[in-house]
Design goal:
By secondary structure, this protein is of the alpha+beta class. It has a domain of 126 residues: Chloramphenicol Acetyltransferase, CATH 3.30.559.10. The strands form two sheets. It has a three-stranded mixed beta sheet with strand order 3-2-5, with helices on one face. Strands 1-4 form a two-stranded antiparallel ribbon. Helix 3 crosses helix 4. The protein is globular, with a radius of gyration of 27 Å. InterPro entries: CAT-like_dom_sf (IPR023213).
């Protein structure tokens, strides 16, 4: 290879004298101090990557899943609230469902649940959008054998920590230019906070 000029420390001043002051430099100046790179967001606990579904928006049916419905009467809810105490009815129901799922799954119980709540900063109830707070709550104990009050308190107290995972989910989707599909895994959802 042939280079027309090689700039060394000895001829740097001579080279700079020839630079046109009104033109912009070929390279932007850099800081000599090491600036810390922003910490990459960790993977969201609430989202699970799934096979690509494209525009179909129907999940691949490659897992066994059933729908289960139940009725919760006012009497049931009153009894549940009496057992659990000073947390909301929603948090009590979440705790009850989490423990029930853990008992059924014997040994494969979910240690993490995802709770979706309405973002109080968005009052537009008639406008569709991604305006839910998505939080993952992790238990460091056996959920199936735990006290409902302990679970409900864990869910209720986690609200104060504001562990909203929307930014993590968005970063995970964007890293593959939006070509990867995700679902929100085991979750409890409440729209009317």
């Amino acid at each position: 290879m042939h280079f027309q000029s090689l700039i060394s420390s000895t001829n740097w001043g001579q080279h700079m004298a020839k630079v046109n002051v009104n033109s912009s430099p070929a390279l932007a100046p850099r800081s000599l101090t090491n600036t810390a790179k922003p910490e990459a967001p960790s993977e969201p606990l609430s989202a699970k990557q799934v096979n690509h579904v494209g525009d179909l928006w129907v999940l691949a049916n490659n897992c066994k899943m059933e729908t289960f419905s139940f009725n919760l009467t006012t009497k049931h809810l009153s009894n549940l609230q009496a057992k659990i105490g000073s947390v909301s009815a929603f948090d009590s129901i979440c705790a009850l469902l989490w423990r029930a799922i853990a008992k059924v799954r014997e040994g494969f119980e979910p240690q993490i649940i995802t709770v979706c709540r309405k973002d109080p900063c968005h009052d537009d109830s008639n406008v569709l959008g991604n305006n839910q707070i998505i939080r993952s709550i992790k238990a460091s104990f056996l959920v199936g054998e735990s006290d409902l009050n302990k679970l409900a308190t864990l869910i209720a107290n986690d609200q104060d920590q504001v562990c909203d995972e929307r930014n993590k989910i968005e970063a995970a989707v964007e890293k593959d230019n939006g070509c990867t599909d995700y679902i929100i895994s085991i979750y409890m959802h409440r729209m009317d906070d």
